[in-house]
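Figure 2 data, in text form.
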Amino acid sequence: MQWDSVCNLLDFSRDIYSVSRLNREACAVLEGGFPLLWVEGELSNLAQPASGHIYFSLKDPAAQVRCAMFRSKRLLLGFKPANHQQVLVRARVGLYEGRGEFQLIVEHMEPAGEGALRLQFERLKQRLAVEGLFDESHKRPLPSIPRQVGLITSPTGAAVRDLLTVLGRRFPALPVLIYPAQVQGESAARELVAALDLANGRAECDVLILARGGGSLEDLQAFNDEALARAICRSAIPVVTGIGHEIDLSIADLAADRRGATPSAAAELVSPSAQHMAQRVGACGQRLEAALTRELAARRQGFAAAERHLRLLHPRDRLRRRQRDVEALQRRLATAVERRLAEARRRLDPLTLRVRGASPQGELARRHLIVGALGRRLDEAVDRILDARGERLARAVQGLEARSPLATLTRGFAILRRVPTGRVITDAGRLVPGDRVDARLARGRLILEVVEVVGED
């Protein structure tokens, strides 16, 4: 036994793992052994640190698993996750090597079950609202007394019985036409759209009720269909919805012209009450009778006044008076025209004489003479000014030439400037041997170097 123990101690062929190596290889096995998979569960222990990542547990009644979703993937979420929410995730299986914890790296997350339907409902609601499908300005008024009501619903459901009961109780004389359609299932939305289009094509009703009984969000999914909402908006006939219970709100309710909280409430919206109608008819009859009585009394009074007026004013006498008035107006008109013509002649004769005496030809000739004389005077003044300015310019040029240093240079003088400052040199004592001097002559320049400085004697 001692020899075996010594051999075991000297057995260098054993492969001993470090914890880091073990976790690293276990992580590789997990990541390579599982594909990208879908997992459903309930959110718990949700943490959202400042880094932007989110960490949480995904659990069911029997187990739970830690999960991480990094910031780049979290920014793509279309909803805000919360604890106790049922979700569906697409994730990679992995191992957090630092603590040796089994975890899921989540690539995508969405609500599961009814939560997904609710999210889908909210997204469609927001998109259609932006397009303006729910605007109140597009809602059409309901007819006060419809000629015929169309019911778009299942012919065997409880909703159609409620609708017929309410309509029959409130207004038994109102005709009702049923457009059958499925209200639940995969084909329900298509059948509802087809029934709406059929009702508009046949134009037999002036108001439509779109209805079904209560149910879960999944049961009412056919009424959250985009095609159905657009069919309601393009309907030429007003549409009233009565879908589910009062707390149920669908896309069809938002697109409809009016919403009833239940099918029975929708039936009450479109049908007038027979009792109320009888009261309105009675009140209208009383108002009509009173209006007719007042109108007959007024007409009798007007007729009596007209009869008295006709007796006083016979048409022959009125014609004679009108004829005399016309003749008098004609005479007044002729007199007024003659008077206006005579006055115009009296005013015209003096003006004619004044125009003839005030011919512009003599004035034009005089003006021509004045303009000619002014032109000659202007020419003479310009010549004098030019001569005087020329003499002044010549004297100024002579004075400038006499004072110009350039004239002095022509007599053998030069202007000396220090190089490189360019200052004029007037004192030889300011120079030292080796300084350079720029000498300006009458023609050209010389660059000189001082060899010796001689002061004044």
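Caption note: Residues 299 and 419 are 126 Å apart (CA to CA).
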